[in-house]
Specification:
This protein has three domains: 5-285, Purple Acid Phosphatase, chain A, domain 2 (4-Layer Sandwich); 291-358, no CATH class; 363-408. The strands form four sheets. A six-stranded mixed beta sheet has the order 4-3-2-1-13-14. Strand 1 (5-10), helix 1 and strand 2 form a beta-alpha-beta unit. The chain has helices spanning 31-49, 69-84, 109-113, 147-151, 161-181, 218-221, 304-312, 338-344, 376-386, 391-408; strands at residues 5-10, 54-57, 89-92, 119-122, 126-132, 135-142, 189-194, 196-197, 215-216, 228-232, 238-239, 248-251, 268-274, 280-285, 291-297, 321-328, 350-358. The relative contact order is 0.11. The protein contains ten helices and 17 strands.
Length: 409
């Protein structure tokens, strides 16, 4: 049996995200942009140290469709490292890479225009035979589906959005099946795609999403003619197949955390050893910058600032992006000295917020009742009346709320 082909799969680097960053004095680049670039370097270092055969980047190189020349230069430097090592790289077009208008170039089209050796730009559904030092491999590309191409067809003009969604789902499914039909059964085969797959768990990509999404059925991808399905688009790393099912259908996830919604998520990429019918893979975690939420309860403290400082001193915030939630009573609110609190957090990379969670006693609005003993509808009605809303408006809101509660019950 020939030696497995070593494949590196990563996605969704979104170079240009600057949340919780500051300008780095040495480079003039936002510190968060540098975080994302360092994670790409980490991925490439890992692959080259292990004699990688082929690299798949499964889409979304930049945050926006029109990245600055500086950001394009930094991405190109990483691509060049791979190419200079004699390793083929597949650059799949994601939704953040697509132009707003169909005829315009994507943010990674320059590599196709210049015909850069060892670079395959996956701008359309196509099957590519890629030669590696351990033998040939088939890699099929399925970029993010362009909705405006579908809407330009006469048969779909004027259709409601839900019908267009179903039509687009069917078209993508048919295209993926057609790619599978073209495969040489004797060679290992990988499909790389950038879209949502039904059953996947969403991540924080929804906060930076460009365009309207459509979900492709997992059954379309669960075809044993593929040896591995390398997905991009969803930021949360996950395998969509039950253990033992073939092929693995995997979102590598993003390389850096975007916000506190990803605080507890591991970030990384996939290392895949591809053999026809016997492919294996593993998730490799990177050193993504930590996000840390610290909750401090000072309701029983005499000096809320000192109590907050004492609690924060127990936490290692070195290099982290931090938010602090201080639980307090209303009469304590004015006595918290935020400047003194921030002084304890000087080892953090960025302090996102010092949030006061003030205990409000609202029993009077509840007519003496305990909220724990009231139904959601009763609580909502009490709340609306406390806001001096007129009776007709209260009736309409309660009617809609009742429908939602009954539907989800």
């Amino acid at each position: 049996m020939s030696e497995p082909i070593r494949l590196l799969h990563f996605a969704d680097i979104h170079i240009g995200i600057e949340n919780y960053g500051h300008i780095d004095s040495a480079t003039g680049v936002n510190s968060r942009v540098l975080d994302f670039l360092r994670r790409v370097d980490e991925v490439i270092d890992y692959g080259l140290a292990r004699d990688v055969d082929v690299v798949i980047f499964a889409g979304d190189a930049f945050k926006t469709r029109d990245p600055s020349p500086t950001l394009q230069r930094e991405f190109a430097r990483r691509v060049k490292r791979v190419v200079d090592a004699g390793v083929p790289i597949i650059l799949l077009v994601g939704n953040h890479d697509l132009p707003a208008m169909e005829k315009k170039a994507s943010s990674i089209d320059i590599y196709r225009t210049l015909a850069v050796p060892n670079v395959v730009v996956g701008w359309e559904e196509a099957l590519h035979r890629v030669e590696t030092k351990r033998g040939p491999i088939q890699i099929a590309t399925a970029p993010y589906p362009m909705r405006n191409r579908l809407m330009s067809l006469d048969e779909h003009r004027g259709k409601p959005v839900d019908e267009l969604d179903r039509a687009l789902q069917e078209i993508v499914g048919d295209n993926v099946r057609a790619l599978a039909e073209q495969l040489d059964p004797a060679l290992p085969a990988v499909l790389t795609a950038h879209f949502t797959v039904s059953g996947a768990t969403y991540g924080s990509e929804r906060s930076v999403m460009l365009g309207r999404d459509v979900a492709v059925l997992k059954s379309v991808l669960a075809d044993a003619r593929w040896d591995y399905v390398a997905l991009g688009h969803i930021h949360k790393h996950q395998s969509l197949q039950p253990k033992g099912d073939y092929p693995a259908i995997v979102y590598s996830g993003s390389l850096e955390r975007v916000d506190f919604g990803e605080e507890k998520e591991a970030k990384g990429f996939c290392w895949v050893e591809v053999t026809r019918g016997q492919t294996t893979w593993q998730f490799v975690e990177v050193k993504a910058r930590p996000f840390k939420t610290i909750v401090v309860d000072v309701r029983e403290a005499d000096d809320v600032t000192m109590a907050t400082q004492a609690e924060l001193a127990q936490h290692d915030v070195t290099g982290a992006i931090v938010r602090v939630i201080v639980r307090m009573r209303p009469e304590q609110e004015a006595s918290l000295r935020e400047r003194d609190v921030r002084a304890v957090l000087k080892a953090a990379s960025y302090v996102a917020a010092i949030q006061k969670d003030v205990e409000r006693v609202e029993r009077a609005r509840l007519g003496g009742h305990s909220p724990e003993g009231m139904t959601p509808m009763e609580l909502l009605e009490r709340y609306l009346r406390s806001k001096d809303m007129d009776e007709e408006r209260i009736r309409v809101v309660l009617e809609h709320a009742r429908g939602i509660i009954e539907r989800d019950a």
